[in-house]
Amino acid sequence: MGLRPDELRRVAVEHGLPAFAGKQMAEWLYRRHAGGIDAMTNISKVGRERLAAHCTVGAMPPAASQRSVDGTVKYLFPTAAGHFVESVYIPDGDRATLCVSSQVGCKMGCAFCMTGRQGFEGQLTAADILNQIYSLPERDTLTNIVFMGQGEPMDNLDAVLRATTVLTADWGFGWSPRRITVSTVGLRKGLERFLRESECHLAISLHNPFPEERARLMPAERGLSLAEMVGILERYDFCRRQPRDPGAPRQRRLSFEYIVFDGVNDSPRHAQALIRLLSNLDCRINLIRFHQIPDSPLCGVNDARMTAFRDSLTRRGLFATIRASRGQDIMAACGLLSTAEKERQAREAAGDAGNAGISG
């Protein structure tokens, strides 16, 4: 899983199969979602045996799941390297969104995020990312995918771009890039490369329009400032001033994620600064309720405050929406994903096994 047709052709030839078996494998993987090599029945029995001796599809079912009262389901997926990641399936009428992870833990250290507290445990491969979709029980109902789970996608961009290529290619899942959104706190090299190489939607974790205040919430601000990030975005097709065919549809949508904290980023001063910062961009801003994490001084705002902040933005021409909170009762809402305890248990289990081997 995750290999392109040309790479699958090389795998076929290396194992004594005809080159066209690579195309057959791509069909079985990405269109028919084969669970194993034995299922690839238009490949000869001998060919399947040769492949199975050295290769696996890479599909791994979820190790556990939790269902929220609102229908949201959080899945725990194993990775090929022995780690765990969480994914969240969010049904909503005729839409169904999957929030996928791109790393085990995260390096970014955002003050409001449980994944950031976990720290960085490892990168996911493209197969690990795709498996969250491939092995999802509700896979066939999905309408959208958001890379907003554990990790910073731009810090693992090779794997993320390979995964989105498989998802959108004619030989792959065949999805429109408009069904996929990739989020980032803003890493310069990753962001610029993503903008050049991908047509998927982009979401920026913003959370405060003032650099010094944002840096206290998000250390990544020190690596790429808001002003620099907006400057990069203005060079692409999000800029209001950039001439374009008015009848041509935009290939990508730009949104900014903004968790609203009581007394931290919810004042008229912050609303005015947001409008100034984003005035040249064709974008939307998604306001998100803060979900309390242990030992955090940050607090969310009530519904009235959230609505007032949204209205202060929309009155000045900045399209703002309040994102519905889902799965909070199972720790599946924004900022709550963490596999720190599972990682600790896995390390302890590995240590116990090693000690048993030594003592034996």
In total, the number of strands is 12
Give the averaged pLDDT, no decimals.
93
Cα(first) to Cα(last) distance is 38 Å
Shape: globular
Order of helices and strands: HHHEEEEEHEHEHEHEHHEHEHEH
As residue ranges, the low-confidence spans are none
* Radius of gyration using CA atoms only: 22 Å
Please state the structural category.
alpha/beta
Count of helix runs: 12
- Roughly how much helix do the residues carry, as a percent range? 25-40%
The major sheet is characterized as:
10 strands, mixed
Strand content: 15-25%
Q: Which sequence of strands runs across the widest sheet?
A: 1-2-3-4-7-8-9-10-11-12
Tell me what the structure shows.
The protein is globular. The strands form two sheets. The chain has a ten-stranded mixed sheet. It has a two-stranded antiparallel sheet with strand order 5-6. The longest helix has 20 residues, at 340-359. The two termini are 38 Å apart. The protein has 360 residues and is an alpha/beta fold. The chain contains twelve helices and twelve strands. The mean pLDDT is 93. Helix 7 links the parallel strand 8 (180-184) and strand 9.
